[in-house]
Amino acid sequence: MTDPLEQSAWTDSDHERSLIASCLIVTAFHRKALDNGLGVEHFAHPAHQHMWAAMAEISDRGGHPTVHSVSEILHRDGNLEAAGGRQAIDHMTADTYGVDRPAAFNDAVSSVKRNAAWRANAVKATALLAAAQRRVPAEWRHAEERLGETVQRTQAKAVFTPDDRSTGLMEALQGGRHVERFAWPLGRLNSLSRGGARRGHLTVMAGPPSHGKSCLLDGALEGMWAEGRRVALYLNEMEPDERTLRITARLSGVSLSVLQEAEAGAHRLTERDAARVLEGMQRDHIDIVKCSGWTAARICQHARRQAYDVVGVDILQRLRSDNGKKRHEVLDDAVNEFDRLAKDGPGRHVIVCAHVNRARAVDSGRFPMPSIVDLKDTGSLGEIADNVLFVWRKQDPKTLEALDVGIVRFAKCRGGKLGGEVVVFDGEHQRFNPGTESDERELAA
To answer: Could you give the residue ranges of the DSSP H alpha helices within 42-161?
Structure first.
Protein backbone atom coordinates (compact mmCIF):
# COMPACT_ATOMS: atom_id res chain seq x y z
CA MET A 1 0.00 0.00 0.00
CA THR A 2 1.34 3.45 -0.91
CA ASP A 3 2.65 5.49 1.99
CA PRO A 4 0.30 8.49 2.28
CA LEU A 5 3.23 10.67 3.31
CA GLU A 6 4.66 10.24 -0.18
CA GLN A 7 1.51 11.07 -2.14
CA SER A 8 2.11 14.22 -4.15
CA ALA A 9 -1.49 15.41 -3.74
CA TRP A 10 -0.86 16.34 -0.12
CA THR A 11 0.15 19.84 0.92
CA ASP A 12 2.88 20.69 3.39
CA SER A 13 0.32 21.66 6.01
CA ASP A 14 -1.44 18.33 5.50
CA HIS A 15 1.76 16.49 6.32
CA GLU A 16 2.51 18.57 9.36
CA ARG A 17 -0.98 18.43 10.78
CA SER A 18 -1.38 14.73 10.20
CA LEU A 19 1.94 13.77 11.78
CA ILE A 20 1.60 16.00 14.82
CA ALA A 21 -2.04 15.18 15.54
CA SER A 22 -1.57 11.45 14.90
CA CYS A 23 1.44 11.09 17.15
CA LEU A 24 -0.02 13.17 19.95
CA ILE A 25 -3.21 11.16 20.12
CA VAL A 26 -1.84 7.69 19.41
CA THR A 27 1.04 7.76 21.84
CA ALA A 28 -0.32 9.88 24.67
CA PHE A 29 -3.96 8.89 24.90
CA HIS A 30 -5.01 5.75 23.08
CA ARG A 31 -4.10 2.84 25.35
CA LYS A 32 -4.81 4.57 28.65
CA ALA A 33 -8.13 5.89 27.40
CA LEU A 34 -9.19 2.37 26.47
CA ASP A 35 -8.08 0.99 29.84
CA ASN A 36 -10.29 3.55 31.55
CA GLY A 37 -13.37 2.74 29.53
CA LEU A 38 -13.39 5.77 27.25
CA GLY A 39 -14.86 5.56 23.78
CA VAL A 40 -15.42 8.00 20.97
CA GLU A 41 -18.36 9.59 22.78
CA HIS A 42 -15.95 10.95 25.43
CA PHE A 43 -14.12 13.09 22.90
CA ALA A 44 -16.28 16.11 22.17
CA HIS A 45 -13.96 17.77 19.67
CA PRO A 46 -14.50 16.52 16.07
CA ALA A 47 -10.74 16.06 15.67
CA HIS A 48 -10.69 13.57 18.52
CA GLN A 49 -13.58 11.62 17.04
CA HIS A 50 -11.94 11.31 13.62
CA MET A 51 -8.70 10.12 15.21
CA TRP A 52 -10.49 7.68 17.49
CA ALA A 53 -12.49 6.15 14.64
CA ALA A 54 -9.29 5.60 12.64
CA MET A 55 -7.51 3.97 15.58
CA ALA A 56 -10.53 1.79 16.36
CA GLU A 57 -10.59 0.50 12.78
CA ILE A 58 -6.90 -0.43 12.96
CA SER A 59 -7.25 -2.12 16.36
CA ASP A 60 -10.29 -4.11 15.22
CA ARG A 61 -8.16 -5.54 12.41
CA GLY A 62 -5.65 -6.71 15.02
CA GLY A 63 -3.12 -3.98 14.25
CA HIS A 64 -1.49 -1.26 16.34
CA PRO A 65 -2.15 2.37 15.42
CA THR A 66 0.91 4.15 13.99
CA VAL A 67 1.47 7.51 12.37
CA HIS A 68 1.35 5.95 8.92
CA SER A 69 -1.74 3.79 9.42
CA VAL A 70 -3.80 6.47 11.14
CA SER A 71 -2.85 9.11 8.55
CA GLU A 72 -3.74 6.71 5.78
CA ILE A 73 -7.30 6.25 7.06
CA LEU A 74 -7.76 9.98 7.67
CA HIS A 75 -6.67 10.67 4.10
CA ARG A 76 -8.90 7.91 2.72
CA ASP A 77 -12.00 9.24 4.51
CA GLY A 78 -11.32 12.89 3.79
CA ASN A 79 -10.88 13.76 7.50
CA LEU A 80 -7.26 14.81 7.41
CA GLU A 81 -7.85 18.55 7.68
CA ALA A 82 -10.42 18.18 10.46
CA ALA A 83 -8.17 15.86 12.47
CA GLY A 84 -5.00 17.89 12.08
CA GLY A 85 -5.98 21.53 12.50
CA ARG A 86 -4.17 23.87 14.88
CA GLN A 87 -7.18 24.16 17.15
CA ALA A 88 -7.43 20.38 17.38
CA ILE A 89 -3.82 20.08 18.50
CA ASP A 90 -4.36 22.75 21.14
CA HIS A 91 -7.35 20.82 22.48
CA MET A 92 -5.18 17.73 22.90
CA THR A 93 -2.90 19.36 25.48
CA ALA A 94 -3.07 20.11 29.18
CA ASP A 95 -6.13 22.36 29.15
CA THR A 96 -8.30 19.47 27.96
CA TYR A 97 -6.81 16.37 29.58
CA GLY A 98 -4.22 17.50 32.12
CA VAL A 99 -1.54 15.81 30.05
CA ASP A 100 1.65 17.58 28.93
CA ARG A 101 3.37 16.88 25.66
CA PRO A 102 6.64 15.01 26.25
CA ALA A 103 9.66 17.28 25.80
CA ALA A 104 11.43 15.09 23.26
CA PHE A 105 8.28 14.96 21.19
CA ASN A 106 8.10 18.76 21.20
CA ASP A 107 11.69 18.84 19.95
CA ALA A 108 10.77 16.59 17.05
CA VAL A 109 7.74 18.72 16.22
CA SER A 110 9.92 21.83 16.21
CA SER A 111 12.32 20.13 13.81
CA VAL A 112 9.42 19.33 11.54
CA LYS A 113 8.19 22.92 11.56
CA ARG A 114 11.66 24.29 10.72
CA ASN A 115 12.01 21.96 7.75
CA ALA A 116 11.66 24.17 4.66
CA ALA A 117 11.92 21.34 2.16
CA TRP A 118 9.01 19.47 3.72
CA ARG A 119 7.93 17.24 0.86
CA ALA A 120 11.45 15.96 0.17
CA ASN A 121 12.00 15.16 3.84
CA ALA A 122 8.61 13.78 4.89
CA VAL A 123 10.01 10.33 5.60
CA LYS A 124 12.84 11.83 7.64
CA ALA A 125 10.34 13.87 9.63
CA THR A 126 8.36 10.75 10.36
CA ALA A 127 11.51 9.05 11.61
CA LEU A 128 12.20 12.01 13.90
CA LEU A 129 8.79 11.68 15.47
CA ALA A 130 9.14 7.91 15.85
CA ALA A 131 12.55 8.39 17.47
CA ALA A 132 11.00 10.85 19.92
CA GLN A 133 8.48 8.20 20.93
CA ARG A 134 11.26 5.70 21.58
CA ARG A 135 13.37 8.15 23.60
CA VAL A 136 10.75 9.07 26.14
CA PRO A 137 9.02 5.94 27.48
CA ALA A 138 9.09 7.41 30.98
CA GLU A 139 7.43 10.60 29.79
CA TRP A 140 4.77 8.63 27.93
CA ARG A 141 4.05 6.65 31.10
CA HIS A 142 3.75 9.90 33.01
CA ALA A 143 1.33 11.27 30.41
CA GLU A 144 -0.77 8.12 30.66
CA GLU A 145 -0.80 8.31 34.46
CA ARG A 146 -1.98 11.91 34.27
CA LEU A 147 -4.77 10.90 31.91
CA GLY A 148 -5.71 8.08 34.25
CA GLU A 149 -5.96 10.51 37.16
CA THR A 150 -8.18 12.77 35.07
CA VAL A 151 -10.45 9.85 34.21
CA GLN A 152 -10.67 8.78 37.83
CA ARG A 153 -12.02 12.24 38.72
CA THR A 154 -14.80 11.86 36.15
CA GLN A 155 -15.96 8.42 37.29
CA ALA A 156 -18.65 7.57 39.84
CA LYS A 157 -18.35 8.64 43.44
CA ALA A 158 -16.23 6.22 45.49
CA VAL A 159 -16.58 7.43 49.12
CA PHE A 160 -19.99 7.53 50.82
CA THR A 161 -20.15 9.12 54.27
CA PRO A 162 -22.75 8.07 56.86
CA ASP A 163 -24.74 11.21 55.98
CA ASP A 164 -24.66 10.26 52.28
CA ARG A 165 -25.90 6.77 53.03
CA SER A 166 -28.61 7.93 55.44
CA THR A 167 -29.97 10.45 52.93
CA GLY A 168 -29.88 7.91 50.12
CA LEU A 169 -31.61 5.26 52.21
CA MET A 170 -34.48 7.51 53.22
CA GLU A 171 -34.99 8.68 49.64
CA ALA A 172 -35.11 5.06 48.51
CA LEU A 173 -37.51 3.94 51.24
CA GLN A 174 -39.89 6.82 50.68
CA GLY A 175 -39.82 7.13 46.92
CA GLY A 176 -38.09 4.03 45.61
CA ARG A 177 -34.47 3.95 44.52
CA HIS A 178 -33.99 4.19 40.76
CA VAL A 179 -31.66 1.39 39.67
CA GLU A 180 -31.50 0.81 35.94
CA ARG A 181 -32.60 -2.72 35.08
CA PHE A 182 -32.78 -4.72 31.85
CA ALA A 183 -35.58 -7.24 31.42
CA TRP A 184 -34.86 -10.97 31.20
CA PRO A 185 -36.79 -12.92 28.53
CA LEU A 186 -38.78 -14.86 31.17
CA GLY A 187 -41.17 -13.10 33.54
CA ARG A 188 -40.33 -15.20 36.57
CA LEU A 189 -36.65 -14.25 36.28
CA ASN A 190 -37.59 -10.57 36.40
CA SER A 191 -39.67 -11.14 39.51
CA LEU A 192 -36.87 -13.05 41.28
CA SER A 193 -34.26 -10.42 40.38
CA ARG A 194 -36.61 -7.62 41.47
CA GLY A 195 -37.03 -6.02 38.08
CA GLY A 196 -34.37 -7.56 35.85
CA ALA A 197 -30.64 -7.50 35.17
CA ARG A 198 -28.81 -4.53 36.66
CA ARG A 199 -26.18 -2.27 35.18
CA GLY A 200 -22.93 -3.04 37.00
CA HIS A 201 -23.66 -6.77 37.42
CA LEU A 202 -21.86 -9.80 36.02
CA THR A 203 -24.12 -12.77 35.27
CA VAL A 204 -22.81 -16.27 34.59
CA MET A 205 -25.20 -18.27 32.41
CA ALA A 206 -24.19 -21.93 32.70
CA GLY A 207 -25.41 -25.39 31.90
CA PRO A 208 -24.54 -28.68 30.17
CA PRO A 209 -23.69 -28.67 26.45
CA SER A 210 -26.67 -28.31 24.08
CA HIS A 211 -29.14 -27.44 26.84
CA GLY A 212 -29.88 -23.94 25.46
CA LYS A 213 -27.46 -21.47 27.04
CA SER A 214 -26.84 -19.71 23.74
CA CYS A 215 -30.56 -19.52 22.97
CA LEU A 216 -31.32 -17.92 26.33
CA LEU A 217 -28.43 -15.48 25.90
CA ASP A 218 -29.64 -14.39 22.46
CA GLY A 219 -33.16 -13.89 23.77
CA ALA A 220 -31.85 -11.79 26.65
CA LEU A 221 -29.76 -9.59 24.34
CA GLU A 222 -32.66 -9.06 21.96
CA GLY A 223 -35.01 -8.04 24.76
CA MET A 224 -32.47 -5.69 26.30
CA TRP A 225 -31.83 -4.01 22.94
CA ALA A 226 -35.58 -3.50 22.54
CA GLU A 227 -35.45 -1.37 25.70
CA GLY A 228 -33.06 1.03 23.98
CA ARG A 229 -29.69 -0.42 24.99
CA ARG A 230 -26.68 -1.07 22.77
CA VAL A 231 -25.90 -4.77 22.92
CA ALA A 232 -23.14 -7.01 21.59
CA LEU A 233 -22.47 -10.75 21.43
CA TYR A 234 -18.81 -11.80 21.52
CA LEU A 235 -18.71 -15.17 19.84
CA ASN A 236 -15.88 -17.71 19.91
CA GLU A 237 -17.79 -21.01 19.84
CA MET A 238 -19.59 -20.88 16.48
CA GLU A 239 -19.50 -18.84 13.31
CA PRO A 240 -21.59 -15.65 13.05
CA ASP A 241 -23.50 -17.11 10.08
CA GLU A 242 -24.59 -20.13 12.11
CA ARG A 243 -25.69 -17.94 15.01
CA THR A 244 -27.55 -15.65 12.62
CA LEU A 245 -29.62 -18.61 11.38
CA ARG A 246 -30.71 -19.31 14.95
CA ILE A 247 -31.55 -15.67 15.61
CA THR A 248 -33.49 -15.53 12.34
CA ALA A 249 -35.54 -18.60 13.28
CA ARG A 250 -36.64 -16.90 16.48
CA LEU A 251 -37.36 -13.48 14.97
CA SER A 252 -39.04 -14.63 11.75
CA GLY A 253 -41.01 -17.68 12.87
CA VAL A 254 -39.50 -19.71 10.01
CA SER A 255 -38.25 -22.99 11.46
CA LEU A 256 -34.51 -23.49 11.90
CA SER A 257 -34.52 -26.72 9.87
CA VAL A 258 -36.10 -24.92 6.89
CA LEU A 259 -33.47 -22.19 7.08
CA GLN A 260 -30.62 -24.69 7.36
CA GLU A 261 -31.86 -26.69 4.35
CA ALA A 262 -32.20 -23.51 2.30
CA GLU A 263 -28.69 -22.42 3.28
CA ALA A 264 -27.34 -25.82 2.25
CA GLY A 265 -29.05 -25.51 -1.14
CA ALA A 266 -31.49 -28.39 -0.53
CA HIS A 267 -34.42 -26.15 -1.47
CA ARG A 268 -35.40 -22.52 -1.94
CA LEU A 269 -37.43 -20.54 0.55
CA THR A 270 -41.01 -19.89 -0.43
CA GLU A 271 -41.90 -16.28 -1.13
CA ARG A 272 -43.86 -16.17 2.12
CA ASP A 273 -40.94 -17.51 4.17
CA ALA A 274 -38.49 -15.18 2.44
CA ALA A 275 -40.71 -12.22 3.31
CA ARG A 276 -40.92 -13.39 6.93
CA VAL A 277 -37.13 -13.70 7.10
CA LEU A 278 -36.64 -10.17 5.77
CA GLU A 279 -39.19 -8.80 8.20
CA GLY A 280 -37.66 -10.69 11.13
CA MET A 281 -34.11 -9.60 10.38
CA GLN A 282 -35.17 -5.97 10.53
CA ARG A 283 -35.61 -6.60 14.26
CA ASP A 284 -32.10 -8.04 14.64
CA HIS A 285 -29.95 -5.37 16.27
CA ILE A 286 -27.32 -7.48 18.04
CA ASP A 287 -23.75 -6.66 17.06
CA ILE A 288 -21.97 -10.02 16.69
CA VAL A 289 -18.22 -9.76 17.25
CA LYS A 290 -16.20 -12.77 16.13
CA CYS A 291 -13.60 -13.13 18.87
CA SER A 292 -12.01 -16.53 18.28
CA GLY A 293 -8.47 -16.35 19.65
CA TRP A 294 -9.15 -13.21 21.71
CA THR A 295 -8.24 -12.83 25.35
CA ALA A 296 -10.71 -11.53 27.92
CA ALA A 297 -8.72 -8.30 28.10
CA ARG A 298 -9.11 -7.70 24.37
CA ILE A 299 -12.87 -8.33 24.53
CA CYS A 300 -13.21 -5.86 27.40
CA GLN A 301 -11.11 -3.26 25.59
CA HIS A 302 -13.28 -3.54 22.50
CA ALA A 303 -16.55 -3.40 24.50
CA ARG A 304 -15.42 -0.26 26.34
CA ARG A 305 -14.46 1.45 23.11
CA GLN A 306 -17.84 0.68 21.55
CA ALA A 307 -19.70 1.82 24.70
CA TYR A 308 -22.08 -1.16 24.81
CA ASP A 309 -24.69 -1.26 27.57
CA VAL A 310 -25.04 -5.06 27.56
CA VAL A 311 -22.28 -7.51 26.62
CA GLY A 312 -22.67 -11.25 26.08
CA VAL A 313 -19.70 -13.62 25.81
CA ASP A 314 -20.13 -17.15 24.43
CA ILE A 315 -18.17 -18.97 25.77
CA LEU A 316 -15.78 -18.57 28.72
CA GLN A 317 -13.89 -21.83 28.32
CA ARG A 318 -12.68 -20.97 24.79
CA LEU A 319 -10.88 -17.77 25.71
CA ARG A 320 -7.25 -17.65 24.63
CA SER A 321 -4.57 -18.07 27.29
CA ASP A 322 -1.46 -15.90 27.47
CA ASN A 323 2.01 -16.06 29.01
CA GLY A 324 1.96 -19.81 29.62
CA LYS A 325 -0.57 -19.56 32.44
CA LYS A 326 -2.51 -22.58 33.60
CA ARG A 327 -6.08 -22.89 32.43
CA HIS A 328 -7.68 -22.10 35.78
CA GLU A 329 -5.45 -19.02 36.16
CA VAL A 330 -6.49 -17.74 32.73
CA LEU A 331 -10.18 -18.19 33.52
CA ASP A 332 -9.81 -16.66 36.99
CA ASP A 333 -8.25 -13.60 35.37
CA ALA A 334 -11.01 -13.55 32.74
CA VAL A 335 -13.78 -13.54 35.33
CA ASN A 336 -12.11 -10.62 37.10
CA GLU A 337 -11.74 -8.76 33.78
CA PHE A 338 -15.43 -9.21 32.97
CA ASP A 339 -16.43 -8.14 36.48
CA ARG A 340 -14.41 -4.92 36.08
CA LEU A 341 -15.99 -4.38 32.68
CA ALA A 342 -19.43 -4.58 34.30
CA LYS A 343 -18.61 -2.20 37.12
CA ASP A 344 -16.19 0.43 35.83
CA GLY A 345 -17.16 3.84 34.51
CA PRO A 346 -20.90 4.14 33.84
CA GLY A 347 -21.30 0.35 34.24
CA ARG A 348 -22.92 -2.21 31.98
CA HIS A 349 -24.45 -5.67 32.30
CA VAL A 350 -22.15 -8.51 31.28
CA ILE A 351 -23.41 -12.07 30.63
CA VAL A 352 -20.84 -14.84 30.27
CA CYS A 353 -21.83 -18.34 29.15
CA ALA A 354 -19.94 -21.21 30.78
CA HIS A 355 -19.90 -25.01 30.89
CA VAL A 356 -20.52 -27.20 33.92
CA ASN A 357 -18.44 -30.16 35.06
CA ARG A 358 -19.18 -33.66 33.84
CA ALA A 359 -18.08 -35.27 37.12
CA ARG A 360 -21.59 -35.97 38.38
CA ALA A 361 -22.70 -37.26 34.97
CA VAL A 362 -20.10 -40.02 34.75
CA ASP A 363 -22.22 -42.98 35.84
CA SER A 364 -25.40 -42.46 33.84
CA GLY A 365 -24.20 -39.92 31.31
CA ARG A 366 -27.06 -37.64 32.40
CA PHE A 367 -26.38 -34.29 34.00
CA PRO A 368 -28.19 -33.69 37.28
CA MET A 369 -29.63 -30.25 37.89
CA PRO A 370 -26.44 -28.20 38.44
CA SER A 371 -25.44 -26.10 41.41
CA ILE A 372 -22.66 -23.55 41.88
CA VAL A 373 -20.12 -26.24 42.76
CA ASP A 374 -20.61 -27.69 39.25
CA LEU A 375 -19.25 -24.60 37.47
CA LYS A 376 -16.32 -25.73 35.35
CA ASP A 377 -12.60 -24.87 35.63
CA THR A 378 -12.68 -21.89 38.00
CA GLY A 379 -14.14 -21.20 41.43
CA SER A 380 -14.13 -17.47 40.61
CA LEU A 381 -17.31 -17.90 38.58
CA GLY A 382 -19.45 -18.54 41.60
CA GLU A 383 -17.51 -16.27 43.96
CA ILE A 384 -17.20 -13.11 41.87
CA ALA A 385 -20.31 -13.18 39.67
CA ASP A 386 -23.28 -11.19 40.96
CA ASN A 387 -25.71 -13.71 39.47
CA VAL A 388 -25.45 -17.37 38.46
CA LEU A 389 -28.21 -18.54 36.12
CA PHE A 390 -28.44 -22.24 35.20
CA VAL A 391 -30.10 -23.65 32.09
CA TRP A 392 -30.95 -27.35 32.46
CA ARG A 393 -33.19 -29.80 30.59
CA LYS A 394 -34.12 -33.41 31.23
CA GLN A 395 -32.30 -36.01 29.13
CA ASP A 396 -33.48 -39.14 27.38
CA PRO A 397 -32.18 -42.07 29.50
CA LYS A 398 -31.14 -44.03 26.38
CA THR A 399 -29.88 -41.47 23.85
CA LEU A 400 -28.90 -38.84 26.47
CA GLU A 401 -30.32 -36.17 24.17
CA ALA A 402 -31.76 -33.14 25.94
CA LEU A 403 -35.57 -33.18 26.08
CA ASP A 404 -37.77 -30.11 25.71
CA VAL A 405 -38.80 -29.69 29.36
CA GLY A 406 -36.34 -28.04 31.69
CA ILE A 407 -35.76 -25.18 34.09
CA VAL A 408 -33.96 -21.85 34.08
CA ARG A 409 -32.91 -21.14 37.65
CA PHE A 410 -31.05 -18.52 39.68
CA ALA A 411 -28.52 -20.25 41.96
CA LYS A 412 -27.20 -16.82 42.95
CA CYS A 413 -29.02 -13.53 42.55
CA ARG A 414 -27.57 -10.42 44.14
CA GLY A 415 -30.35 -8.24 45.50
CA GLY A 416 -32.99 -10.83 44.59
CA LYS A 417 -34.26 -14.29 45.47
CA LEU A 418 -33.22 -17.77 44.41
CA GLY A 419 -35.58 -19.81 42.26
CA GLY A 420 -36.48 -20.42 38.66
CA GLU A 421 -39.07 -21.07 36.00
CA VAL A 422 -40.05 -24.31 34.32
CA VAL A 423 -39.61 -23.93 30.57
CA VAL A 424 -40.22 -25.79 27.32
CA PHE A 425 -37.54 -25.49 24.66
CA ASP A 426 -38.74 -24.84 21.10
CA GLY A 427 -35.71 -25.84 19.07
CA GLU A 428 -37.22 -25.04 15.68
CA HIS A 429 -37.72 -21.43 16.69
CA GLN A 430 -34.84 -21.20 19.20
CA ARG A 431 -36.74 -19.94 22.20
CA PHE A 432 -37.78 -20.98 25.69
CA ASN A 433 -41.51 -20.82 26.45
CA PRO A 434 -42.97 -20.85 29.97
CA GLY A 435 -44.00 -24.34 31.08
CA THR A 436 -47.45 -25.51 32.14
CA GLU A 437 -48.50 -27.41 35.26
CA SER A 438 -48.12 -30.69 33.37
CA ASP A 439 -44.57 -29.66 32.42
CA GLU A 440 -43.83 -28.99 36.07
CA ARG A 441 -45.09 -32.46 36.98
CA GLU A 442 -42.98 -34.01 34.22
CA LEU A 443 -39.91 -32.18 35.46
CA ALA A 444 -40.53 -33.29 39.04
CA ALA A 445 -40.86 -36.90 37.90
So the answer is: 46-60, 67-77, 80-84, 86-91, 94-97, 103-114, 122-135, 137-154
Residues 318 and 204 in one domain: yes
**pTM above 0.70?**
no
Q: Which residues contact 220 (CB under 8 A, 6 or more apart)?
A: 184, 185, 197, 310, 312, 351
Task: Give the pLDDT means over successive 10-residue stretches in the chain (445 positions).
Answer: 34 44 46 49 56 73 64 72 47 37 49 46 49 49 47 55 79 68 93 94 96 97 88 94 95 96 93 94 92 91 88 95 81 94 88 89 81 88 95 94 97 96 97 94 86
CATH number of domain containing 315: 3.40.50.300
Per the domain annotation, does 176 fall within a domain?
no
- Sheet containing strand 231-235, edge to edge, reads 287-290, 231-235, 310-314, 349-354, 202-206, 387-395, 402-413, 419-426, 431-434
Domain hosting 74: range is 13-152
CB-based contact 185:402 (threshold 8 Å)? no
CA distance 227 to 183: 8
Cα(273)–Cα(255) distance, integer angstroms: 10
- Residues near 337 by beta carbon (within 8 Å), at least 6 away in sequence: 296, 297, 299, 300
Q: What's the Cα-to-Cα distance from 386 to each of 155, 188, 336, 421, rounded to whole Å?
A: 21, 18, 12, 19
Closest listed residue to residue 211, CA positions, set 442, 401, 418: 401
